Model the fold of this input.
Amino acid sequence: MATVVGKGRQSLPCIVCGRLLLNVEGAVNQPYNGTSFTTCGHYGSTVFDPMDSRKRLVINVCDPCLLEAAQQRLVLMKTEVHQPPPELETVIWVPEKEEEDETQASPAAEAGNQSTR
Ligand SMILES: [Zn+2]
Done:
């Protein structure tokens, strides 16, 4: 069986500086003074893009390294935005006329065309 890292007193260390991080008591890899990041893969990665959505990679970054990266504008923040549901507009349907073949145009249409010349 694989060794569980991040369980017990020690969480995974910071992936940037290697600082040791302590776990919140009773948690598995939930560091004090740090943040745990999880990815289920990324299209475009040449090293981790599993087709098995059950697999994840997890890394920790200590708070000082995260703040330093944010100050260098290297961190994105995403916020879920809930849009209002679309509403339906109701109007009377007027079918579009099929384009008439010019060789069989009706006399009324021709008269209309002549009056605009
Ligand atoms: Zn760090």
